[in-house]
Amino acid sequence: MAPLVVVSVALLLICLQFGTQWIGLTQIIDIVGQALREGTVESEHIGTTGVILIQVRLPRVLLGFLVGACLASVGVVLQALLRNPLADPYVLGVSSGAALGVALAILLGVGTTVVAFSVLPLCGFAGGLLSLVVVYRMAVSYGRLPIHALLLAGVILNAIFSAMIMFVTSIMEPNRSVGTMTWLMGTLTAPSYPTLAILACYLLGGLFLLLKQARRLNVLTLGEESARSLGIDTEHVKRVIYVLSALITGAVVSVSGMIGFVGMVIPHAVRFLLGADHRLLLPASACIGGMYLVIADTLARTLLTPTEIPVGIVTALAGGPFFIYLLVWRKDRFA
Amino acid sequence: MSLSPEHAHSLNAQPPGLGTDAAHKAYQVVGLRFHYHSKSREDATWVLDGLTFDVDAGEILGIVGPNGSGKTSLLKLLAKVLRPHAGDMALFGRDLGTMSQVEVARTVAFVPQESPQVFSFTVMETVLMGRYPHHHGAGWSAGFGWESAEDVSIAEQAMQSTDLTHLAGRSVMDLSGGERQRCMIARALAQAPQVLLLDEPTAFLDIQHQIEICAIVRRLKEERGLTVVLVSHDLNLASQYCDRILMLKAGALFCLGPPHDVIDADVLRAVYGCDVLIDRHPESGVPRVTMPSYISTKNGRGHL
Fold this sequence. Notes:
heterodimer; A: mainly alpha; ABC transporter involved in vitamin B12 uptake, BtuC; about 0% strand; B: alpha/beta; Rossmann fold; four-stranded antiparallel sheet; 14 strands; about 35% helix
């Protein structure tokens, strides 16, 4: 794990260099050091380059890492919980609930004001919470949470909410609907530091709680009955994992839209490289998922400057071929 | 010897956990009733209805019976994977109902009929999962802690008992049916149990692997003093390898006794509704079931 953390930090620094304006590594270290010493991010202290770096690029890269780490981790956990290698964070139906929340907010004009920068994610999160409850209530029967029912409920809710999102988008003013579409494809925007701090505490806390379930997840892949015979309260573990995954996914989608493929491809790639043990797989997937999204976002920012490509497009375009590679050429070890 | 359920009940009726011989009984089951969930209470059909029997410590007990007679449900109830709706079960004199799942898992290991693998854990990793119930301490160590050297040596011993050592690093997805079944038994042994519950341990295995699994079970009983309860459709296998056989019919205990009492033409006709030939095993002399070359049809007897 330690090497992965070192590589992650190095990669973050490297990716900070790229952008419309090239900022060298030494300069980055200088500016960050200065900002930390003076405890301020105001432009008069750190200069224009400093503002670009500290107020735009750094929070965006950090957010990207956080989002990527969460998507990959939730993907790992849900694949184990649903015992389905095709699962990703979006199968729970929570993501489309969050997306619908944001789309409605944009339709109603909440998103046009500057203040709304922090309101939009809240609307998304509310939508996510609502669908969390709906899916759970649909799936639960006789006090149990059958996995197939959970999966079906998520898929059905996804279908309904997707239709509603399309409807909402279709009746918007053209400029707003373009904005909604871009957001749906997945985009990272630099958050303010207080927002980033709250988000980081929330998401890292969630990841930590997921990590505590790592060993139980291993046993759960043997099947629920085997897991129960090994002394695991499977109903409790399933509920904990579902709620944690849904809370994390809802928040992630609220801030970054539906960034695809990270949550499905990264778990497979890491499992392929490091094996299936969740105690290693989960933290490693978090690191690699974070790095993957930061690289993808760096490409999204820089490839077509000054325009930006939605990062969701880059992750899918880079992840898709890799998935095909695994499927076609490494069938023997593909699981 | 075919005992009616009522008769069997009167033979074994004693409160669990209180008898002087409680410690010699792996299980004492009294009046066990179970049904799966259904829309209304009235709809509920009892999968198991009023079972009363004991399992002696150190014996191999075979559970046999027609499809749908409740064999697997009974095994899951013994493993506490399912909860009964009525009746008492005692495990080595302790009330199973009040024992925690982890406590049960330290004494009882359960190998389900099929263990489909979705992810490529290695054999070693899979066997080590059997150590989980022995790590149930504080949340973090139970949820994340790594296995100790002791766990690894117990797992290695379990793999040795099941002749898996050479496959330790192999992915479970690459194993053959027989190897996978052995891997699951090794995982159960890593629990260091006193009771091993096996659901159809030889289903889908060829004759060599059937003999192999049976030999392992027999050896575990002799070397470790394990109590084994196994469910099987194979009456000959049950006859040859089990000390006693429990015959279920439609969720009720039809009879329970040594093979030569249970594997009997009259019993099998009453339970399965068909005629079979019973002779003796040439070596061991236990009853042997053979399908008749003439089968009874509505129009009398015709050649098969």
